[in-house]
Amino acid sequence: MSTGKRNPWRAMALVSIISSYVVGGVVAGVFTGLWLGNQFGAKPVFLIVSILIGLGVGFYGVMKTIEPFLGDDE
């Protein structure tokens, strides 16, 4: 375990990356769902499915981002 000071800029960068993954996934899901809904005439179905897929992709990106920080604390 390190006893040195932690860099606050690194923590802020990690928080911004995490939030951009989640928000970006939802926003991409909304736009994709609305576009597909307009194309096929089933707006609510494609919107809900696309938002859920966007959330899944966003949280997958978050897990891959924080994976190096989730280690053994020995």
Describe the protein's architecture and organization:
This is AtpZ/AtpI family protein. InterPro entries: ATPase_put (IPR032820). The chain crosses the membrane at residues 12-36, 42-62. There is one protein chain. The chain is mostly helical. The chain has 2 helices and no strands. The longest helix is centred in the first third of the chain and has 33 residues, at 8-40. The protein is elongated and about 55 Å long. The N and C termini lie close together (7 Å).
Secondary structure blueprint with pairings:
Blueprint: H1 8-40, H2 43-66
Keywords: Membrane, Transmembrane, Transmembrane helix
Organism: Alkalihalophilus lindianensis
Transmembrane segments: 12-36, 42-62
